[in-house]
Specification:
mainly alpha; single chain; flat; MetI-like fold; 2 domains
Length: 288
């Protein structure tokens, strides 16, 4: 009679230890995965910065021509409010433009998916819009809308809506024909096929377009600020370059790179979570 309680106490006392051990192993496995995926890139980046610093010092390059990495870092540390305030201006333009592009791209892609007539009517203009250099439109946008936030947002949209639209539309039309036949056999409606089959299958393509858009959105915002602005990292680069403050220019460029990288990473994290959800649903459905 005393064996069962002892066994239960033994199991209950070991359970937290086993759970803690599994959690520790999971954390180390994630860290190992991060090192494996990004370790080489980090090492190469650090080596490049070291070579940059040593080359400037050894060859006695003038700082106004190419500042050393240490000078750029000291510029960032010396005046953080300058880069934070101007970075916030640029970030707002990027986020607003990115949200507008995502909404516009989703509406256009789904519209062309549902209507072949709309696709034949709109698709050529989508392609033609990418043949016009956006930089040439920036002065016109400043004339039409002023030097406020609007022209920067429009330029960001012009840079970013195309990869989102084309990525989502490609994904919606890339569903396996056997899966479509199976859904039809089960009596699924067009709306059910869209929400349960086409849209989940298009998510990898959509996130690929979002990643590209996140990177090029920074370029759009900088171009808009370059043409006409009184604040922002693009404006800071322009004004600092005209004064030969090269260290400040590189510091602003570094801030822009961090912003674009953080947006890319954030989208990748959302993608991993959402696609894992769909993979789990698929595996559960297969098991059932």
């Amino acid at each position: 009679m005393s064996v069962l309680p002892q066994t239960e106490n033994h199991v209950s006392s070991e359970s937290p230890t086993v759970a803690s051990h599994r959690q520790t192993v999971s954390i180390w496995n994630r860290l190992a995965g991060y090192v494996q995926n990004w370790g080489a890139a980090v090492v190469i980046a650090l080596l490049g910065l070291v070579v940059w610093e040593l080359s400037v010092r050894l060859f006695d390059v003038q700082e106004w021509l190419l500042p050393p990495v240490s000078k750029i870092l000291s510029e960032l540390i010396a005046d953080p409010p300058l880069f934070i305030s101007n970075g916030w201006v640029t970030l707002r333009e990027i986020l607003v433009g990115f949200m507008v592009s995502t909404t516009f791209g989703f509406v256009m892609a789904t519209g062309m998916f549902w209507s072949r007539l709309l696709e034949r009517s709109v698709y050529p203009f989508l392609i033609a819009s990418q043949t016009v250099p956006v930089f040439t439109l920036a002065p016109l946008l400043v004339i039409w809308t002023g030097t406020g936030m609007t022209p920067k947002v429009v330029i960001v949209v012009l840079f970013t809506f195309f990869p989102i639209t084309i990525g989502l539309m490609t994904g919606l039309r890339s569903v396996d024909a056997d899966m479509i036949a199976m859904f039809r056999t089960l009596g699924a409606s067009k709306w059910q096929m869209f929400t349960k089959l086409h849209l989940p299958s298009a998510l990898p393509y959509l996130f690929a377009g979002l990643k590209v858009a996140a990177v090029v959105s920074v370029i759009g915002a900088v171009i808009g600020e370059w043409i006409g602005a009184s604040a922002g990292l693009g404006w800071l680069i322009k004004t600092s370059g005209s004064r030969y403050q090269t260290d400040k220019v590189f510091a602003a460029i570094f801030t822009l790179s961090v912003m674009a990288s953080m947006m890319f990473i954030l989208i990748s994290l959302v993608q991993a979570r959402m696609l894992r959800h769909y993979h789990q649903s698929d595996s559960e459905g297969a098991t059932n």
